[in-house]
Amino acid sequence: MQFEFYVPSRIIFGEGSLAELGKRELPGKKALLVTSSGSSAKKSGAFDKVFGILSGKGVEVVSFCKIGANPDLDTVNEGARCARENCCDFVVALGGGSVMDASKAIALAAPNGENYWDFVAAGTGGGKPIKSKPLPLVAITTTAGTGSEADATAVVTNPATNEKIGFVHPGMFPVLSVVDSSLTLGVPPQLTAFQGFDALFHATECYVSNKANKMSDMLALTSMEYASKYLARAVSDGSDAEARDGMSFANMLSGMVMTLSGCTSKHGMEHAMSAHSPKLAHGAGLIMLAPAYYEHMISVHACDERFIKMARAIGAENAGEPADFVEALKKLMQKCGVSNLKMSDYGISPEDFSTLAKNAMSSMKRVFLNDRVPMSVDDVISIYQNSYK
Ligand SMILES: [Zn+2]
Predict the structure, then answer these.
(1) I want to staple 227 with a disulfide (CB 3.0 to 4.6 A). Which of 120, 250, 277, 286 is the partner?
(2) 283 CA to middle of ligand 1, Å?
(3) Gap between the Cα atoms of 206 and 307, Å rounded
């Protein structure tokens, strides 16, 4: 049970910790400040706050407010060009997982070349060597989902090939991450649920993964405990500061877990879905798949004891069999109002399942290798079928 723990990000955690940004040394003089096209950070005032803090420290700021959900390759390449043309020497990501992931890709591409896809070493990506160090990244998270502030993965979609690939490079770890749960207070209930379940599933998948180890287990179980304790509260009352803080913690741990272990095929299956239907939120796709996915893993006895431990971690204290995990999970979904999400509402139909399965298994091959019991194409298709509503 060997492991290697490498999370070289300085993480400042806690309600109100954004104020700390002004007291810390920043990694450059000219920042590309990246945020979403929906400008939720602008509406909440966080954008002005960060802009003010950076300017107050004498940093010149170029803003790039174009990132959408499931960030795409063109936007990433445009951001990298913007950083290059303006000679930005670091990147500040202000937003949720999409913004942080796109910012990592921008930071990597800016000093290396025109096209980020040339460097992606998976699917149709070019796998070219990354000769220059990515620009340093400061990540300020405004949501509790993806754990992207504590890992080195960038998930970017290439619409031309319908691939949504999570690419990992150690140079994409943020040098500084600010996890201030007060920035998440305004996230609407449904989005809070989608993001919270994404964090929870990073922990559950990393716990059942064949890469799990003592260290990842510790982080994963704690992440699950916090998510199951606080998610429904954060969904039902967004202003519940304690619940928001608990979810920010669960989320940060779920990011760290991914650096030690690895997500399993459920993430690959979901990426194929949201690459096919970009309006589908990542967390929502995972929620749709989860019950059938875990029922399958339990039916092949992938790791019975681990399922019992996960059931206990998410609130079924007296759990005695693996299936108790799925029951506890369904209960949590109901409490959070997300138990009736339908693929058909996002234009996914059963005729797509074979294409989705092939896409998932090629573009996200990496996560399929983490399954304790390897999945066949037929297994993947039948999980899609059993999840279909
Ligand atoms: Zn995820």
Answers:
(1) 250
(2) 7
(3) 12
